[in-house]
Design a protein that fits this description.
single chain; Glutaredoxin; 12 helices
């Protein structure tokens, strides 16, 4: 029994650590997934429900919740591996897995999610797979709770505290770094080397959605449903009522990049023209909460250098009015502003702002606002 407990303990601990580390690579992505859950839940509630205000408040603090959840996963997994405070740690794991099981069950049952975000964008899994994984983990954690007497610390108390402190520092520093300098591993379609135009196309090997056509007829006061292969020989004696389509298999015939359309001040779509240009600097920004002093001067230098070489500098955002005002107030009114879908902007910009250097639509370099000065060397 002791051997079984230790094997399961190692397996559960490693799974929580890996799950946390994958999400720690992109905590902003997890916060967006949380916001998606909150928005869908709010949309399904009656307008008088008090939960709407709660979910709206949680929506505002989704990034903080994301960081806390990731940290708890990694810390709890580490504590289980080294055998520190086994009882409270196992109850914490039980709480986390019950919460995750609820989320994945909802994601699978509602059919509104293709990826629950449990392993981030680098290891996307379907809601069903994630739900089954959580159910298995739930059973394993309950087993560990029952057999916790076999769990013994691997180190002395002092070494355990050192290990947990080091884990906390590493987890915190990793998340701070990627939130300021972009994810260490870019698993999104806007990664360096990708051509945006190609990423906007449906993959050649994609499987389309599969539908079955149903024809509804009436005869003798009764209604009948037929598909195209079941139509009766005496069809002319039936009265046609309706025709319906039913999805029987969800495909994956979607482009990696969706909603990427750049609209200028004139209202015309300039996406193709921009992506066909020999060289372009695109600055993606969702909002202007970050202090402008941390990057606006570098942007001025880049704008001047790019203009001297005939390279256009463009700002892409879902909030064009605020962007134009910000640029005008900082002497950069000559930078054109293009509107784009907010989800596409969020996907492209994992720091706010994020700067792309494009060569005929291919992302040759990508910088966070803290490294915007490095772009000067590439122009």
């Amino acid at each position: 029994m002791k051997t079984s407990v230790n094997i399961i303990r190692i397996l559960v601990g490693i799974l929580f650590i890996v799950s946390g580390l994958v999400k720690a690579n992109d905590p902003l992505g997890l916060s967006y997934k949380m916001q998606e859950f909150f928005e869908i839940w709010n949309a399904s509630l009656p307008s008088s429900s008090f939960l709407i205000n709660i979910f709206s408040s949680l929506h505002e603090y989704s990034l903080a919740l994301s960081i806390i959840m990731i940290t708890l996963e990694i810390m709890a997994g580490t504590a289980l591996l080294i055998g520190w405070k086994k009882k409270p740690v196992l109850y914490l794991l039980l709480f986390l897995i019950i919460f995750f099981t609820f989320l994945t069950a909802y994601a699978y049952g509602s059919g509104k999610f293709k990826n629950c975000g449990c392993f981030g964008d680098c290891l996307p899994i379907t809601p069903l797979t994630s739900f089954l994984k959580d159910v298995i983990l739930l059973v394993l954690i309950i087993f560990l709770l029952i057999q916790q007497r076999y769990i013994q610390p691997l180190f002395t108390e002092r070494r355990q505290i050192i290990a947990l402190t080091a884990t906390l520092l590493f987890t915190t520093c990793l998340q701070w770094y990627v939130l300021n300098y972009l994810p260490l591993v870019d698993c999104l379609p806007f990664k360096v080397g990708n051509n945006i135009t190609e990423q906007m196309k449906i993959p050649a090997n994609a499987v389309p959605d599969s539908f079955v056509m149903k024809f509804i007829y009436e005869k003798g006061g009764k209604r009948f449903e037929f598909n195209t292969t079941e139509l009766p020989a005496d069809l002319e004696t039936y009265k046609f009522i309706d025709r319906t389509e039913k999805l029987i298999r969800k495909g994956n015939a979607e482009p990696p990049i969706k909603g990427f359309s750049l609209t200028g001040a004139s209202g015309s779509d300039s996406t193709s023209a921009i992506l066909e240009a020999p060289k372009t600097v695109l600055l993606f920004t969702e909002h202007f909460k970050n202090p402008l002093t941390s990057w606006i001067n570098d942007l001025k230098d880049i704008n001047e250098k790019a203009k001297s070489k005939g390279t256009p500098v463009l700002l892409v955002t879902a909030n064009a009015t605020a962007a134009k005002n910000m640029l005008a107030q900082n002497g950069l009114a000559d930078i054109p502003v293009f509107s784009c879908d907010n989800i596409a902007v969020r996907t492209a910009a994992r720091t706010n702002p994020t700067i792309f250097l494009l060569q005929k639509g291919t992302i040759s370099d990508k910088y966070s606002y803290r490294r915007i000065d490095k772009l000067k060397q590439k122009l």
